[in-house]
Amino acid sequence: MKRIQDCTISKITWLNTDSYLLELDVPDEIPVLAPGQFAEIRIGNSPDVFLRRPFSFLDADVENRKLVFFIKRIGKGTRHLGELHPGETVNIIYPLGNHFQVPEKGNVLIVGGGSGIAPFILLGKELQKKGVGMTFLLGGKAGSDILLTDRFSQYGDVLITTEDGSKGEKGMVTDHSVFTSDPFPFTMIYACGPEPMMKAVARMSCLKNIPCEVSLENLMACGFGVCLCCIVETTEGNLCVCTEGPVFNTNRLKWQICA
Known about the structure:
Elements: E1 3-14, E2 19-25, E3 38-41, E4 53-56, E5 59-61, E6 66-72, H1 76-82, E7 89-96, E8 107-113, H2 120-130, E9 133-140, H3 149-152, E10 157-162, E11 169-170, E12 188-192, H4 195-207, E13 212-215, E14 231-234, E15 237-240, H5 241-244, E16 247-249
Parallel strand pairs: 8-9, 8-12, 9-10, 10-11, 12-13
Antiparallel strand pairs: 1-2, 1-7, 2-6, 3-4, 3-7, 5-6, 13-16, 14-15
């Protein structure tokens, strides 16, 4: 059941000049959250930012009633949100959207580019509960863009690529040597990040004949499928990412991934 709540900011932790963690104290019991779901947050301290902003749940502490979001400062809304202080409140609507499918067994590859790492701590926790092995592949333009590796390493191995070669292997995530492993050691791939990156990862999964799920980062103004600004073309027609996604099996997307 969706909730609309005023939550108190307990902490804002800046990870570099552009990215921060927003930690909220929730007044009531947190409902069941699944990895990949998101919340719409109202930017209350900015009268010229009218629309809510969608953010995936990075983590949730149900016992202590805390929600954590990974946020990259991209525009006016995320900048103003990062200027708030502990003790101030924000209004959120949650939980929204669908979620990643968590297998009962296997070994999965989780690929995050830039702010695309946002849903993957919660996913790592769920996979660990099932005893599923996992490897994280994180990509960025430079070493300063690679964040939260200590958190991800609690759940699996962490591999890194940077476009300038300052950390990990040089190149895009699909240039990483893990994709040339023979045999390929993974039974499923998850990805989130810029669309070209996700398309490249999806193509790799298609060529290796294993399933791939991606979390799309379309603009989602309402979160309820009313504004229709987050439409994506699928094999079933045009669908709203906020209600039918944000997670899609790539076989449902018109991406021509094996071309």
